[in-house]
Amino acid sequence: MSADWTRLLASPGYLGALYDGTPPPAGSCDPFYVHIDERGTSVTLGFDTRILPVNAPVEWHEKGFNAFEFHLVFEGVEGLRVTGWDSAAAKDIGMTTREGAFEIALGPTESGIAFRASTARLARARAYLASDSV
Question: What is the pLDDT of residues 60-86, one digit of tens each?
Answer without folding.
Answer: 999 999 999 999 999 999 999 999 877
